[in-house]
Amino acid sequence: MRTHGKMAGGPRTSDRALRPIDRLPYLAAAIPLLLLEYAAAFIPGLTQRSLEGAWAFGIGWMAWLGRVEGSLLGLVILLCSAALGWLSLRRTVATGDPGSFVALAVVPWLQLPAILWLALSRSDSSPTAPDSTAAVRGALWGLAIAFGAEILLTLTFGSYGIALFVGSPFIVGLIASYLAQRDGHPRPLMVAQYALVLASAVLFGFALEGLVCLLIAYPLAALAALIGGAFGSGLARMRVSSGTAFSTIALLPLLLAAETAAPPLAEFGDTRSIEVDAPPAAVWQAIVHMGTIHSPPAAPFDWGLAYPVAGHIQGQGVGAVRLGVFSTGTAYERVTRWKPGRELWFDVLSDPPMMRESNPFGPVRAPHLEGYFSTRYARFTLAALPGRRTRLTLATDHTLRIGPTEYFLPLAHWAVRENKRRVLAHFRTEAEARYRAT
């Protein structure tokens, strides 16, 4: 057994368990793990679609079964990734390759060439740098914690709150930095960020999350990992035992329990007005015969955020059904007030997903896409102005169930305002064109 000895009085490198592994045993273990990992990630798509279809017919327990299935498959992916990382770390001890190859060996779609490279590399008597080993060890533990939190919080409980976006990266940073500091890495806080990036790459590569969601949440997660890393580095310098450091993982179920008792919720309204060079009758016709919005949306909406495309009203008067077509699906709405030329109010019965995640590796079925942002009602009010002009006002009411709401609420406000600006501009263009034509 080869070890990287520690300097007298220096940090402990803790490589006693890292026995090198030869080519054939490495390949014999890694290839089956790789196949099982991808089978768990991508083959169950047909089963998932059948479960969704059954749920659409009202069999609610099938949706629960689908969530259980997703959690179990996520656990299989986690165990396979952890085993591949550990095997690859042992292989780098034999070959002297840099620790970055271990990271590549757990990142989807880069795994096969990395594993083949490690398998084909010749054994090297020179040891792998202790700094590299310490960084990889800490990053792999961070990856395991982040992936486990994803399975527990999202796939199992559908919880998107402080436990996921703050608690999980805090623990990832704490454990990764603790191990890196304990094993002698000179920049333990960088190891914490390394672990977070590695976890994001794995979640993205297996289509468990999309690019837009990761980009939105990453600044908050990176800050939490930085703070957690400072705590972890401090614990290692105080020579706190590893058992005590790892016990901080218990913070996650405590946060989950607290958020289950008091889930994140923000309610907000938004009102926007626009003046139209047309009388109320023309504006009314533009609203009830909305048609298709041809103006392109802003860039972030092109990346996946939901934006309005068209609207159609079936029938007239109170009780009529309005279909609001969005880029991600159709909202079903019921008219609650119908006063031609004055007011059109409707309640939103169902919302489309708030975004369509961008991921080239497959469809993302993250629970946060549906039900975590909703619109409760929309109210159009028309007020006549001098010179046969009209002030058109659109008031809406919304709920956001993703926490911390203080972080995500500004984005929700901005998205609502941008969508509303685009809709009102469409009505103004249509109404003025109708008025000029008549």
Which helices and strands appear, and what pairs or packs with what?
Blueprint: H1 23-42, H2 45-56, H3 60-95, H4 100-104, H5 111-120, H6 130-156, H7 162-182, H8 188-205, H9 211-237, H10 242-246, H11 251-261, E1 266-276, H12 280-288, E2 291-292, H13 299-302, E3 308-314, E4 321-326, E5 329-339, E6 343-350, E7 373-385, E8 389-400, H14 405-437
Antiparallel strand pairs: 1-8, 2-3, 3-4, 4-5, 5-6, 6-7, 7-8
Summarize the structure.
The chain is of the alpha+beta class and 438 residues long. It has helices at residues 23-42, 45-56, 60-95, 100-104, 111-120, 130-156, 162-182, 188-205, 211-237, 242-246, 251-261, 280-288, 299-302, 405-437, and strands spanning 266-276, 291-292, 308-314, 321-326, 329-339, 343-350, 373-385, 389-400.
Folded structure, characterized:
The chain has 438 residues and is of the alpha+beta class. It folds into 2 domains: 23-261, no CATH class; 266-437, Alpha-D-Glucose-1,6-Bisphosphate, Chain A, domain 4 (2-Layer Sandwich). Helix content is 54%, strand content 16%. It contains 14 helices and 8 strands. The protein has helices at residues 23-42, 45-56, 60-95, 100-104, 111-120, 130-156, 162-182, 188-205, 211-237, 242-246, 251-261, 280-288, 299-302, 405-437; strands at residues 266-276, 291-292, 308-314, 321-326, 329-339, 343-350, 373-385, 389-400. An 8-stranded antiparallel sheet has the order 1-8-7-6-5-4-3-2, with helices on one face. Helix 7 packs across helix 9. The longest helix has 36 residues, at 60-95. The termini are far apart.
